[in-house]
Amino acid sequence: MTQIFVEGGVVVPVTLIEAGPCYVTQIKTEKHDSYNAIQIGFEEAKKLNKPDQGHLKDIPAVKHLREIRTDDVERYQRGQKLDAGVFAVGDVVDVVGISKGKGFAGSVKRHHFRGGPKTHGQSDRQRAPGASGATTTPGRVFKGTRRPGHMGARRVTVQNLQVVLVDPERNLLAIKGAVPGANNDLVMIHKARKQ
Fold first, then answer.
1. Burial 48-73 (b: 16+ CB within 10 A, else e)
2. I need a labelling partner for 124 at 20 to 30 A (CA). Which of 24, 62, 151, 157 fits?
3. SS3 for the chain, per residue?
4. Rounded to the nearest 5°, which phi and psi values hold at 164?
5. pTM (two decimals)
6. Could you report the per-residue pLDDT of 129-143, keeping only the tens digit for each?
7. Are residues 45 and 98 part of one domain?
8. In this structure, what CATH number is given to the domain that contains residue 45?
């Protein structure tokens, strides 16, 4: 993340994303595959296995393949190059990525539990979750109860982020706000579904 100045001298916190070049590697149609979509590839690959070499024949070798549903597949041809120019300043987008993995976390960190009292004789209950079940009936802890456990490393979608800057020459997008994942992680950017 960084910050940029927009008109009027306002400072905007942004995340810089390298958005291309991507190549259309496959086109799926309603007639042939029962739905419309395009498959795009990103990031140059140094080495490919034999199945990928056959799939990406006559297309630059790419490391990551993702499928995107679209209704107008006629606009695309196999091998077509897509860059950051498909976005415009002011567009509202959703960004999908894998959140940072935090490992095993307690309920205070994972679910923002308050914890126990800090005084009145407690010695080891300050960050404990407290009781999590009921009494004799039902005599168990319900499924889905918030408990300590693995935190992060999940698919997260951040919705309705605004595109502040587009640089097609360097394939850079500046998106207002934070996006999921660590530095250099792979994210997908698509048109916002809930505007």
1. eeeebeeebeebeebeeeeeeeeeeb
2. 151
3. CEEEEECCCEEEEEEEEECCCEEEEEEECHHHHCCCEEEEEEEECCCCCHHHHHHCCCCCCEEEEEEEECCCHHHCCCCCEECHHHCCCCCEEEEEEECCCCEEECHHHHHCCCCCCCCCCCCCCCCCCCCCCCECCECCCCCCCCCCEEECCCEEEEEEEEEEEEECCCCEEEEECCCCCCCCCCCEEEECCCC
4. -100, -30
5. 0.84
6. 988 888 889 999 999
7. no
8. 3.30.160.810
Residue 16: exposure state from Cβ atoms within 10 A (0-12, 13-18, ≥19): middle
Last residue of a domain, one of 82, 105, 122: 82
pLDDT tens for 95-131 read 999 999 999 999 999 999 999 999 999 999 999 998 8
